[in-house]
Write a structure and sequence with these properties.
10-stranded mixed β-sheet; alpha+beta; 11 helices; globular
Length: 373
């Protein structure tokens, strides 16, 4: 680690990062293992990527946010060309007339934790230690950047075939979601998205800090617990401050691709004496609400995380299947996601559950470092 806190990502780090990001992704963000493989190949070809703390960023530096857009179930079947986010980033630079100095994750969850790493390796840029969600959410507007004032345009989307579409003038973040989602569906339900450049001083205020490092630490904890044949779920709970809410076996899983999202529901039969007899999880790319014996116990924006009961492996929604034995844990979202303006965008009502009253979880916290907003 250098004096300013930056550090290089090694090939060994990529596996830890992908595992930790899968956990923070609450089931979404795309398959992290595929993203890890793509990043690894770039490092093996000689690329380097450094992680840069938010406070090392100059006020007037321009930051780019990139990530995949589409349905996670498509990501395990539709192979990416590899430069989708890079081409979208360059298109945004061309239209806006600025050069990006660093990249940041839209969401730390799943493969979208790896997309900025891949693009940074291709562009020769550092990746900032933070993101816009502290988890994964299914829609473009659901980042702290947009919630706290980022411009919706210019933005760009690129696919595996060589198509690049630029959104020059967009009224607001909801229109950007609509246009980008429809375009992503036309592109095969999977593409790379880059949003308008953001100033460094704004990113320091709006980003959830330390989440790249936190994902790395979580992944290392899981790998260490496995190597020592320890209780992996127990180690995860101790390391993150999460709470165990349910253990059981998946008895039914329903998923369908609707409007560019993977929507559905998982049913789990309980196996723990005090965790309840049955649980149900609502899904829209990510895990949205957990009911235990008919009572809602965790809901967005707090994190609902499915772990393999034996290995502690985070289970993303596209690979959730009948017969899996799960531990379902909950982790409080970062405070930037709990303000009134944030709850209007990422609270239960934003996902079609207006009757659910958000009751924040106690315990650990997503993101490291102090808030500067």
């Amino acid at each position: 680690m250098r004096g300013d806190g930056r550090y290089p990502l090694t090939e060994a780090d990529l596996l830890s990062l992908s595992i930790g990001a899968a956990l923070l992704g609450t089931g979404g963000g795309g398959n992290p293992y595929v993203g890890m493989l793509r990043s690894r190949e770039l490092l093996r070809k000689g690329a380097t990527v450094e992680v840069l703390p938010l406070d090392a960023l100059a006020d007037d530096a321009w930051v780019g946010e990139v990530g995949g857009i589409g349905a996670p179930v498509v990501g395990v079947e539709k192979i990416e060309q590899g430069e989708e986010c890079y081409r979208a980033l360059r298109a945004v630079e061309e239209v806006s007339g600025v050069r990006i100095s660093a990249l940041i994750c839209a969401e730390i969850g799943g493969a979208n934790s790896m997309e900025p790493v891949i693009t940074a390796a291709q562009a020769g840029l550092p990746v900032l230690d933070g993101d816009g969600m502290g988890r994964a959410f299914p829609e473009v507007q659901m980042t702290t950047f947009f919630i706290y004032g980022a411009k919706p345009a210019p933005a760009a989307i690129a696919d595996d075939k060589g198509n690049t579409v630029v959104f020059r003038d967009v009224l607001d973040m909801y229109w950007l979601e609509r246009f980008a989602r429809d375009t992503a569906v036309a592109m095969g339900a999977g593409a790379g998205l880059a949003i308008a450049p953001m100033r460094g001083d704004f990113v320091r205020r709006a980003a959830i800090p330390g989440t790249m490092t936190q994902a790395l630490e979580i992944g290392r904890t899981i790998l260490d617990a496995r190597a020592k044949r320890q209780d992996v779920v127990g180690r995860i709970i101790a390391a993150t401050g999460a709470t165990l809410f349910f253990t059981g076996k998946v008895t039914d899983i329903r998923r369908e691709l609707l409007g560019g999202f993977a929507r559905g529901e998982a049913q789990i039969a309980g196996s723990g004496e005090w965790h309840g007899s049955e649980a149900r999880i609502a899904i829209q790319n990510e895990n949205l609400v957990l009911w235990v014996d008919g009572r809602p116990v965790i809901m967005v924006p707090d994190l609902i995380i499915n772990l393999d009961l034996e290995t502690g492996e985070p289970i993303t929604t596209e690979v959730l299947r009948y017969g899996q034995r799960l531990a379902v844990i909950g982790l409080p979202a970062h405070e930037l996601l709990k303000t009134p303006e944030a709850m209007a965008v990422v609270g239960p009502g934003a996902f079609g559950y207006p009757d659910l009253v958000f009751s924040p979880l106690a315990g650990g916290r997503v993101g490291n470092g102090k808030d500067v907003r």
